[in-house]
Amino acid sequence: MDRRNFLKSSCLLCGGAVVGSMALLESCGKGGVSPSAGNVNFTLDLSQSANAALKSAGGSVISHSVIVVNTGSGFVALSDICTHQGCSVFYNASGHDLVCPCHGGTYNLSGTVIAGPPPAPLKKYNISQSGNILTISG
Ligand code: FES
After folding, report:
1. Does 59 contact ligand 1 (Cβ within 6 A)?
2. CB of 117 closer than 6 angstroms to any ligand 1 atom
3. Residue 107 Cα, ligand 1 centroid: separation in angstroms?
4. What is the pLDDT of residue 1?
5. Does residue 35 form part of some domain?
6. How far is the CA of 122 from the centre of ligand 1 (A)?
7. 21-74, pLDDT tens digit by residue?
8. In what order do the strands lie in the sheet with 113-115?
9. pLDDT more than 90, % of the chain
10. Strand pairing partners for 134?
C-alpha cells in the first residue's frame, strides 16, 4: 500500500468512527426509548435475613427489579428501573422518595416523577401481606 492509499483508508476509517460516535451520542442525549418494567409475580419472606430491612419503617429491599419499601404504614412496590435511562433507583428514607443516582431523577412513593429528567412514572406493583410473606405482582 502506498502512502496515498494508506491516507485514503485512514480517512475512511476515521470518518466512519466519527459518524458512529455522533449517532451514539445523539441517542444518549435524547434518552433513547424509555426503559420499561416488566410483569412480576414473586414473594418475599420477612423471616429471612435478606429481607430484614423490611421489618423497619424506612427499610427497603430490591428483588426482581422491584424496590419494596416499608413506609411505616404499609408496603409499596415499584419498579427500580428509572424511566430515563434505566439506572436502578434507591429509596431515600429521609426524603420519603426514590432517587436515581445517574441524573438525579426523583419519584414519590406513588412512582410519580417529582424532579429530574425521567419522562414517565415508575411502574407500581400490587403488594399484599400474609403473615411473614409479601406477595408482589403486576
Ligand atoms: S437514568 Fe437518568 S435520571 Fe435516572
Report:
1. no
2. yes
3. 11
4. 53
5. no
6. 12
7. 333 333 444 444 568 788 999 999 999 999 999 999 999 999 999 999 999 999
8. 90-92, 97-99, 106-107, 113-115
9. 72
10. 44, 129
CA dist 126 and 87 (Å) reads 22
Alpha helices in the chain, H assignment, sequence order? 3-29
Best probe residue, ligand 1, of 65, 82, 89, 99 (max atoms within 8 Å of C-beta): 82
The answer to whether residue 36 sits within a structural domain is no
Do 26 and 85 lie in one domain? The reply is no
- CA 50 to the chain's CA centroid: 21
Q: Which atom of ligand 1 is nearest to the CA of 104?
A: 3
What does pLDDT average to over the chain? Answer: 84
In the chain, the number of structural domains is: 2
Cell 411502574, residue located: 123
d(CA 67, CA 80): 5
